[in-house]
Amino acid sequence: MNEQRVPKTYRHTGIHKAINPVMVVLTRAGLIPGSAVLTARGRTSGQPRSTPVTAIEHGGARWLVAPYGAVSWVRNVRASGELTLTRRRTRRRFAVREAMAEEAGPVLKRYVAVAPIVLPYFVAGRDDPVESFIAEADRHPVFELVEPHPR
Question: Quick one: pLDDT at residue 1?
Answer without folding.
Answer: 47
